[in-house]
Amino acid sequence: MYMNYKSRKKLLKLSPIALTAMTLSSCVPTIATITLVESLQHDKDKSDKPNVIFILADDLGYADLSCMGQTKFSTPNIDKLASQGMLFTQHYSGSSVSAPSRSCLITGQHTGHTVIRGNKELPVEGQHPLPSETYTIFKMLKDNGYKTSVFGKWGLGAPQTEGAPENQNVDEFFGYNCQRQAHNYYPYHLWHNDEKVMLMGNEGKNENDYAPYLIHKEAIDFIKDNKDTTFFMWYTSVIPHAELKVPAKELLPFVGNEALEKEKAYVGCDEGMYYKNGGYGSQQYTHAAFAAMVSILDRQVGDICSTLDSLGIADNTIIVFTSDNGPHLEGGADPDFFDSNAELRGYKRDLYEGGIRVPFIVRWNNVIKENTRSEHISAFWDFMPTIADVIGADVPENVDGISYLPVLTGHGRQGIHDYLYWEFHENNGRQAIRKGDWKAVKYDVHNDGKIELYNLATDASEQNDLAGQYPEMVAEFDSLMNVSRTDSELFKFQ
Question: pTM to 2 decimals?
């Protein structure tokens, strides 16, 4: 029987006698910027540091929000979040797949430096672990008095390894440890810290065991339980990744929707199966399922916001919303139908814009001006130095990020990157660099592939390769690709 984490915590606090009775009965160094205290002239003490909630969607495309141009369905709660804060139009994920993108976010390093540079699976449940000595945003925030938590998908260290959440300065974790198992929305089990939480897969169908429901409930309970503390929540939703599956009550409003009338059945679906461990169990109406999944995510974002309002802590909570990479093509997904990337080229696993440019929203009431947009060029590895800037913490010298706090507040001098760097270890190797308006992309690295060159100011869709016209610039980018990385014994790039 499923039991939420609050109930389990109460159970663990009981005396042994009571417990027995119950059992019997049932790339550039960080540039120093003006701190929040200086820039906003606040005189808050340490106890007044803001809560931080970072909402990370899974494989949501650049234009999969109605505030970014989506027309097949709407995302009113996320749109409202954007209207209450700042929307970045040139923000980039850490990588074009899950694990390295997350590693970049929490270490402040790009894929040429961060520890986890690919989706390396272990023979058992889970991915290759972050080393115990890795300095992450969880360590930084715990050292500054924060309660830390993760709700959703981890993917950075298998259970009982040094990379497991409870061994990486995460106080409270609930969700999928293994990103491979997160392909299924009715898993046989989830994890609460190091405790395996079995669901009801052996007892037949139960639509309420839909994992995004269970994980969200735990996250809301955590917010309520910690309203009087200072907390960081990494809300790593598994929506709308891969398996396109929702409870029937969520799907029905979208079946027959005029906007989805070109619906295509996914031949590989298994309508009768709920609980799975491996592969995809997408529903018949994959377009409707995708729209329903994003709508669930949108509703959950709204629920987080309303919970903060009801507890009176909304004004002292920074909310970030983004996606870990571009849209996927697995499990019957159809990003072209939804125009998920607008004019951007490429999908998940690409280092073209469509694989790595993501929607990025930040709300901080009374600090960030409402309904603003920024074209500031930024990436996942900027998050750690930004939060460090907010709370006045130090970050290691080896981080690649630059704080974007001055952009958020309108105070202080904003540092800019000389360039951004990515590398991808699948498909014979891929590299990319953005420097100002220019973007260099190199595919088939292992076979000495050629560099493509694009001017994003005039060609955001990366259709006009200018490499032949600018050989000196190509040579510069080639040199940067060589010096922007360090070798990794685990993730070899040769």
Answer: 0.90
